Amino acid sequence: MSQQFRTVTTNAGRNAVREALTQGKTVKLSHMSVGDGGGNPVTPLSTMTKLVNERFRAQINDIVLDPATPDLFTSELFIPQAEGGWYIREVGLWMDDGTLFAVGNTPLTEKPDISSGAATDLLVRLIIRVLDAATISIEIDPAQVLATREYVDRKLDAHNKDGGAHETLARKSVQIKAGTGLTGGGTLEADRTLTIKYGNTAGTACQGNDVRLADARTPKPHKATHQTGGSDAITPADIGAADKTIQIKPGTGLTGGGTLEADRTLTVSYGTAAGTACQGNDARLSNARTPTAHKTTHKTGGTDALTPADIGAVPTTVQVIAGTGLSGGGSLAANRTLAVTYGTAAGTACQGNDARLSNARTPTAHKTTHKTGGTDALTPADIGAVPTTVQVIAGTGLSGGGSLAANRTLAVTYGTAAGTACQGNDARLSNARTPTAHKTTHKTGGTDALTPADIGAVPTTVQVIAGTGLSGGGSLTANRTLTVKYGTGAGTACQGNDARVTASEAFRLSMIGVPRYWRSTTLPAGHVWANGDLALFADWPELKKIYDAGGFAGMLLAYNANSATIAANLGKWRPNAANPTGLYVPNLSEQFFRAWGQGLTREAGTTQGDAIREIWAAWDSPAYTSVAGGAAYHDNDSSGCYQTVDGSGFHTFGVRVSLTVPTAAENRPVNVALPVVLYLGLRP
């Protein structure tokens, strides 16, 4: 079977789109890449996080949304001719954080190396379907994007169609139209006036002196009718009030309360028990209370002695230890002193008056020894300089120069020959110079006539030719129009409102969830096996639309049906939760189909076990009788022959169906095992 080519959104990409939809953000896409699949065909999977073997990656050249299909967009990657020497089998689309958003496989495409002599630029397009393409944006560096001619044409066409592209200009044919409640208007070829329509009908305005707006209008009395028992009585809830039967109830530590029919008082319960409050003059709060003495008992040897750790202290056995360069120290049982050790040896400090720090120390002379010919002479390179033998050389248009042994001057060479400069007052630069007339001589028939090709134009004899499905055209001597031919025959186009298109789409949607036989054991796109597996709405959004619209009426089980109920209804669909995210499809494996019709007592989608009508027979004969054949048989076993009291034989006969028809451990008609699939619609 030939390989199928498709593009899938990765799990990470789907999650990013869902998050963008819920949070009002956009998914930023920045790069595309291609790979060779490691030399093997590639099957794109939603679980992939990278290409099998990536060969080239670059910033996205452009993203184009399809205005006719809001969930489709096309991403473009430009591969320059300098890249190549490999084949393309896979393509990936990446988010700005480096996460793989979508992956697809492609027919085997060679991208030759420029050294082969057949190198060319290549534009790779990846068409993606998502929940809402408006959530997709492009994150690129314009300086690194290469504009194809198609890209420029598309942008220019969009610019020309954009009414706001030149916000300061408007065509004189633009109309100022009077909307509802207005009259007047017209094109921008002259001043236009819009006038408000006044009146008392729909679509007219009410003037400021309209008698209907007079302050003298007296409202109808309502008070009596609004009271309890009135014709339009108002409840407390209607005016944002509380019913008078509502209780103010005392909580823990309070007494009093009651309904809102009168003023209510809540009183604090004072006392010494739980649930009571302590008054401000409670004797237990008196400042005269004397705390129990603790100092003696807390000392070492006391009844509740404290350790240094109990009060955040350290024991006196802790040592202050003198480190390198210090002396002294000891335990914390007494004050300790640390002193700096001064000296000239390692591990000692140098005092401020150390003779070695005296400013009178004279450095060893070096200047003379470093000169050329000295004992340790320095070269120019040693001090970051250049030797005096280095030349300043006068190039083309300059004179002078020389070695760095002295100051050098470079002068510009002026003149009229090649390699000389033109001075500012050169007569050749005078504005009085008059150009040679060319206009007349360049015309057709002139002495130096220009052809259309000389000025990047095309001759008027060039034809705009109407191809298949178009009419019109002609030479460039005038404006030409191409018109699409609409119709039902070959070479004509089908209009968007063609009944055949509408009927075709309606038929496709009507097939969602309908079981059918398939010609192969390879699952076709848009289908699942009818084996009872779970189909998620996230993967099959059109399945959810059919479910939400009640398209499975009479063929649905409860989401919490037990195993016995499920086994008895293998032909039904079942939600995976009370608020489902998917449906379990019917399990039609190893089942024969039986048509269901209105008026039957049996419920649609239910399952019947195997069974046959009763086949039974047995008889006895006082004497042996031969059996001609078929399902009947004579039991030749001695247990099948009995002796009667008069000495005659008594034989047993029976029926065994296997003597005439094939039998097995199951009841079945003649059958063929065919794959059964369910169409679930288009995947995102």
Automatic annotation (TrEMBL):
Superkingdom assignment: Bacteria
InterPro entries: Phage_Tail_Fiber_Structural, Phage_tail_fibre_N
Region (Disordered): 289-308, 361-380, 433-452
Low complexity: bias regions: 290-303, 362-375, 434-447
Protein name, entry field: Phage tail fibre protein N-terminal domain-containing protein
Phage tail fibre protein N-terminal domain sequence ranges: 1-149
